[in-house]
Amino acid sequence: MKTGLTRLLPYALILLVTLALVWIDKPFWIQLAIGVAITAITALAWDILSRTGQVSLGSAAFFGIGSYTLAIFEPLIGLTLAWIAVVVVCALAATLLGLLTLRLRRMYFAIATLGFALSMQVLVVVFPDLTGGSGGIAPPVLADGDPRWQLGLIGLLLLAAVALSDALLGLRFRPAFFMIRTKPELAAASGVPVVRMKIFAFIVSGVLIGLAGACYGGLYGYVVPTDVFTTNWSVLPLAIATLGGMDTTIGPLLGAIALKALEEVARSVIGGTGYQVVYGAVIILFVIAMPQGIVGLLRKAGTLAGRRTAAGEKKKERERHA
Amino acid sequence: MPDTASPDPTRRSAPPSGGAILAVEDLTVAFGGLKALDGVSLSIAAGEITGLIGPNGSGKSTLVNTVSGQLPVRGGRIRLHGGDVTGRRPDRIVRAGMARTYQIPRVPPTLTVEEVLSVPLLYAGRDRHRLPGLGDAASIAAFCGLGPLFRRFCGDLSVTDLRRLEIARALACAPDLLLLDEAMAGLSHEDSVEVMGLIRNVHGQGISIVIIEHLMRVITTLCHRVVVLNNGRLLAEGAPATVLADQAVREAYLGKGFAS
């Protein structure tokens, strides 16, 4: 069904755009690309989790845990180990949250994960000695503050997220994940260790978001709780994946690009803070108009075009015979 | 010494190889204070097709859900191949050799027949050499009459084909014992005859089968033995003709006034 070439498309897109922007070295475009890449990673991670039926509103928790873990551990154990700590802490948090929410379905799961993200923000403010409280914390600056290298590193992380997403869309995982989402009992009756698979998806998703959060914190070397533990980072991945097209790899990528473009256009046309209202409304309209997202729209256009060429061929054929 | 075992006229295919493949001892399952199964003991003979019947609410589905590991056991033991599987996870029980189907198959509509069958093939972890010619998704689909629909999406399948797919999915677990939960419900006469043929072919592969069924026609044509549940207890068991003529069984099914 899917040819090798279309499968390579996301990788080629990321590589080309990243290299081109590093080459051109225009600060505005580099900052824009960094923003797109970070949100794309969180959206891919959200989508990976949602394939097992776990619709999370807790992405912000992992985004914040990532940046705070890097900031807290770097002075204690050094930069390399601190990055490893980000992976370990996010994996532990994902396991814990995954086990706690295991039996919750749909809306209840979403509310529980949202509650987790909100309580993390409170936790940070309650322990100011460790976390700096509401005053914020200073994670190590990514790539010595050189935006081009920052984009390069975040681009690499995005490539890793894309590769993970693709691997989890392969025959080994996709059918089992979808079966868990549709009817977990049926998956179990087919030999799938449902709990282990759900926790596994949670860990992959949580670690990816945590790494994205750590990168985000490292952009300027300074974060405050309201910067990372905000509901924005919980809703954005969901909105992007839905807008772009769920259960795909290219969907969250296209969604991230579309959303950023929309935001920039709205900002320059409307300006102030009013642009956020318009921007939100446009997202809602898009989601209503395209339930299958951009990917669904492209697929539909593809079949239409295919039909048109097929019809054209037939017509030519008929004319030739006439 | 001559073979003294005379063929039973009710047996349609391979004779039983003897011994219990599944044994349930004093099984009790309760939802709150309500006992859905109340001290049920029975055994399923290897190589046979056993019918599990009883009025609505008698505990048939509870029994299937419990032995397949999806309901917690309040008391008693479940043995598969003589090994204790009480309280084991459903996926482990599948790996131990017991597969089940669902009455209402809910498969992801965006998966193809091939992809659905790939799940048990990848995860059930069973030795597939036991079922020669049924080691891959394509041959299992063909065996179940789904060959032409192999690459179709499940969302486009008819109810009958979804039933076939459900049997195919269970077959892909390479089971020794297959529990069929009302595989014929809601099918037309022609379709149910076809599915019955399929069940017979599955049995021909040396797989023991338990059928939950309301249609007596199915029980009398397919089953070697029948087990009757009523109010969570074992009411009767034996050959179909004997059991269905039993006064207590008729009363349980039809009510006291009609049975006599």
Automatic annotation (TrEMBL), chain A:
The chain crosses the membrane at residues 7-24, 30-48, 55-73, 79-100, 107-128, 148-171, 199-223, 277-298. It is found in: Cell membrane. It comes from the Bacteria. The keyword Secreted does not apply. This is Branched-chain amino acid ABC transporter permease. InterPro entries: ABC_transp_permease (IPR001851), LivM-like (IPR043428). CDD domains: TM_PBP1_LivM_like. Keywords: Cell membrane, Membrane, Transmembrane, Transmembrane helix. It comes from Azospirillum melinis. It is a multi-pass membrane protein.
TrEMBL record, chain B:
Residues 22-256 form the ABC transporter domain. PROSITE patterns: ABC_TRANSPORTER_2 (PS50893). Keywords: ATP-binding, Nucleotide-binding, Transport. CDD domains: ABC_Mj1267_LivG_branched (cd03219). Gene3D superfamilies: P-loop containing nucleotide triphosphate hydrolases. It comes from Azospirillum melinis. InterPro entries: AAA+_ATPase (IPR003593), ABC_AA/LPS_Transport (IPR051120), ABC_transporter-like_ATP-bd (IPR003439), BCA_ABC_TP_C (IPR032823), P-loop_NTPase (IPR027417). One of its GO terms (molecular function) is ATP binding. This is ATP-binding cassette domain-containing protein.
